[in-house]
Amino acid sequence: MTRIFIIIILLIGTAVLGLFYLSPEWNELQKLRRETKDLADISGEFDTLIQNRDALVDQINTLSQNDLGRIDRALPEGPKASEFLVSIEALARKHGLVMRRIDIASVETKAATGGQPRPAGTPTTPPQSTGPITELPINLSLVGNYEAFKGFLVDLEKNLRIIDTGDISFSAAGGAFDFSIKTTTYYQ
């Protein structure tokens, strides 16, 4: 009987010792299974993102060089203000308008902090960045007749470079009109 009692005590001791040893290991195994599942889910998301990226790269690669050139002219890298101003002057000349003045980022642009116009005489700030796309405000002053100005605006609208026209004002001086235009163009 003592033998059976010793065997039962050893079995119970082994079970208790195994429980204390196996319980943390079992918890660790469950934790590793959860982490493995999470990693598999993340890997699946990465695979989906890689497929989306590859599809976009394929889509970009199917664009012709002509289309890429048009996109670059619509939203160029860097301000390329000189090219833009030359094209504006050519448009004005084409329609018989005289370019009086061109102001880049003039004093009437809105301040970056308060959104209020800056008073005259304060120094101009560099163009405001709105993330990856930057605004380049330009004020134009033209002289000519009304029909020529309408044609100029039509061609300005059809220009490949993205141009927003904000304010247009004009006044009559003799037989010709003085036109003032506040525009904004964009670049990367």
UniProtKB/TrEMBL annotation:
Renumbered residue ranges of the record's region Disordered: 110-133
Statement: the UniProt record of this protein carries the keyword Isomerase: no
Coiled-coil intervals, chain numbering: none
UniProtKB keywords: Membrane, Transmembrane, Transmembrane helix
Protein name, UniProt field: Type 4a pilus biogenesis protein PilO
Residue spans crossing the bilayer: 6-24
Ranges of Low complexity composition bias in the record: 119-133
Annotated GO biological process: type IV pilus assembly; type IV pilus-dependent motility
PANTHER family referenced in this protein's UniProt entry, alphabetically: FIMBRIAL ASSEMBLY PROTEIN PILO-LIKE PROTEIN-RELATED, TYPE IV PILUS INNER MEMBRANE COMPONENT PILO
UniProt-listed InterPro entries: Transl_elong_EF1B/ribsomal_bS6 (IPR014717)
